[in-house]
Amino acid sequence: MNPTKTTGARQYLRETLRDRANRRIARKRAIDIDRQYAGLGLGLVDASVIALAEELGVYRLATRDLRHFSAVRLGGGRGFELVVHPRRSERQAK
Question: What are the residue boundaries of the structural domains of the chain, listed by start?
């Protein structure tokens, strides 16, 4: 077998396994966050956004979902800096 093909296949396999492991860890963290904030009714989608934000070190979030994201604390106890824009009807009223 060609050593270059073998090396490439091994590298691909390592990267694939690492990617699957990372996704499994992220999914587990999202489930843990959802359980931690069960009283909020956070849900898996919002919990996944939070898990990804933790992983990427993102603290600024644009959302209208103030109820969920203002109550959540990221790993280390830091909260999100929420960027909220008024709805069209709120802008027209001014």
Answer: 3-93
